[in-house]
Amino acid sequence: MAYIARSYVPQIRIYNIYNQETPLPPNLLLYSDFNAYNAWWDPLYEKSDAKGDTLAEWIIEYNLALFNKPGVGTFYRPLMQNATNIDLTLSHCSIANQIKFWAIVEDIGSDYFGITFKIQGTRQD
């Protein structure tokens, strides 16, 4: 589910985060269902996995900010003990202060929760 509040649509570029050969742009905002477990963003999950450890290293290496609140899940099914935090929102640290009011919306009719946030700043064409 995506919603753009006004008619301005920024230029979109696709990056391969697993085989990145060029620097990431300083205005990067990334949201993905990573299916990666790490205590950094999911302390309620008892163990990290290799994918989560690799992702954590990548976040640090590329100077990214993580907006997820540790322990606040983004995915839940009734047979699970706790919701897991597998859908992550990241940005380059240079624009992290422009991302405000990150929150989970639980009741959207899916086992994935909605994620909302506001981007503050000036429009540049």
UniProtKB/TrEMBL annotation:
It holds the Pfam family Exo_endo_phos_2. It comes from the Eukaryota. Transmembrane segments: none annotated. One of its GO terms (molecular function) is catalytic activity. Residues 24-114 form the Endonuclease/exonuclease/phosphatase domain. InterPro entries: Endo/exonu/phosph_ase_sf, Endo/exonuclease/phosphatase. This is Endonuclease/exonuclease/phosphatase domain-containing protein.
